[in-house]
């Protein structure tokens, strides 16, 4: 959880959202789907679909780009692949 003073709230929220949005597109899709599934009753959740999306992330070119960028101390250039 985070809390910010009213005076800087909008700026802080935007900075946080920019950080989240900088993630790889496949990762963002997996996060969104995970949140959708977690909002459902447990009996209706599709954990297999979430697992498949996460596995796709780890096998993606973006995952490799993220690792490479980290080692090279630069921002990644994600393509959604």
Plain-language structure description:
The structure is a single chain. This protein is mainly α. The chain has a domain at 21-71. Helices cover 62% and strands 0% of the residues. α2 (25-38) packs antiparallel against α3. The longest helix has 14 residues, at 25-38.
Mean pLDDT: 94
Biggest pleated-sheet summary: none
* Alpha carbon gap, first and last residue: 31 Å
| Residue runs with pLDDT of under 50 for 5 or more positions | none
Q: What's the order of the H and E elements?
A: HHHH
Radius of gyration: 16 Å
Quaternary structure: single chain
Number of extended strands = 0
Portion of residues within helices: 55-70%
Strand content: under 5%
Globally, the shape reads flat
Count of helical regions: 4
Structural class: mainly alpha
Can you give me a brief rundown of this structure?
The chain is 62% helix and 0% strand. It is mainly α and 81 residues long.
């Amino acid at each position: 959880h985070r809390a910010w003073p009213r005076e800087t709230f909008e700026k802080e929220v935007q900075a946080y959202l920019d950080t989240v949005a900088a993630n790889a597109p496949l990762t963002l899709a997996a996060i969104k789907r995970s949140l959708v599934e977690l909002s459902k009753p447990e009996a209706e959740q599709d954990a297999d679909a979430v697992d498949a999306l996460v596995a796709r992330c780890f096998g993606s070119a973006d995952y490799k780009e993220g690792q490479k960028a980290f080692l090279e101390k630069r921002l990644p250039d994600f393509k959604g692949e």
